[in-house]
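Researcher: Here's the sequence for the chain we discussed earlier.
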Amino acid sequence: MSSGTTSGRRPIGVRIAGTGSALPDRRLTNADLEKLMTTSDEWIVQRTGIRERRIIDRSQGGSTSQLAADALKAALADARLQATDLDLIIVATMTAEMSCPASASLVANMVGAGNCGAFDLTAACSGFVYGLNVAHDLIKGGSYRTIGLIGADALSTLMDYSDAGRSTAIIFGDAAGAVILKATDDTSKGLLAQAMHSDGKGWKEIYVPRCAQDFPPGVEADAGKFDHVQMNGASVFKFAVGTFPELIEQTLESAKVAATDIDMYVCHQSNHRILTAARERFGVAEDKLYINIDRYGNTVAASVPLCFDELRKSGRVRDGQKVMFVAFGGGLTWGSSLWQL
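Model: Thanks. This is the structure I predict for it:
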């Protein structure tokens, strides 16, 4: 973590000045999925906690970039800023419409941000938390003062809504969430601790093949699976169950605080059972670990900022509190970001 000082500069704090989110209008309920594949509401809820999710309508212009732009506009309004106030836009996503240009460049144009910097960050479900750490230190170093960070994904574009893809199609939804990060003279605000990890050996547990060469050794190439998420659910669940509490513990130790000192845990919404198990392990009160997976499913990089926006809008997260952001996902990746708001 950078020191936040450069020659001739005063120490810099970082505050979260605004939040926003965007959701597609279309709801895809478990009852809807029952008509598309062999599954049931009871089976889905029991294993994941999900009751419905939102999905974009591409025929009406729905896209990852449009969701991201809408979320950023909402965050700018919340922060009482104009798009031209932004020095940099970062979009965390794994569902960019194109490999070039970056979604962040499209978003900058959509919101009228002028010639500010713009780039995408790809770390699957961990993308937004990685982005928090990166954006924080860019501001702390003194080179940027106002950054728009967005987590946005439209996993419906990578789903197979038939029996062949039911193990993944029941899980994912589309959304975007954004935060505005600003430099402040209050040096008490900003990161207290962070962690970012990856295990490339586990890439084959969640991947999206584009061609025959993309399949892991020992797995027969199948053109019917191109551009669809392939996931080993059992392995990913085991990875998450083991990694999640270790990551929280590592971050607490780094900041030299107790689990009960944290006012809110804003965690990636992957599975209700994983979230509940982590909360119980650390003796965290139920109202300190937010869960909205029942309404939106797993929205990948949008998951954490969507939760945070809802918490902030409801008054459950406020300035002065300690908030820990935690995520894990494809890569395999996992990361944390503990903030003093």
